[in-house]
User: Which sequence fits this backbone?
């Protein structure tokens, strides 16, 4: 599901109750599904790691947006 429908993985995991958390984290990492990874890390209790994942994604998005603005002038 991470590979073919990554946008729905988090919502599916929120519904499901029984899955192997560590294995699911590894799968989310492998497929670079950052939203799901942050959700799973938070569920695991690793709030700091979840925050770092989202911060990294947002920083990369901001950097890309800034570069596009600079080169569009």
Assistant:
């Amino acid at each position: 599901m991470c590979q073919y429908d990554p946008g729905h993985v988090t919502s599916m995991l929120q519904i499901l109750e029984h899955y192997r958390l560590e294995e699911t984290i590894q799968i989310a990492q492998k497929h670079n599904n950052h939203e799901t990874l942050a959700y799973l890390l938070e569920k695991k209790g690793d709030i700091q790691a979840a925050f770092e994942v989202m911060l990294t994604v947002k920083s990369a998005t901001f950097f890309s947006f800034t570069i596009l603005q600079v080169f569009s002038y």
In short: The chain has one domain: 6-71. Residues 6-71 form one domain. The longest helix spans residues 47-71. The radius of gyration is 15 Å.
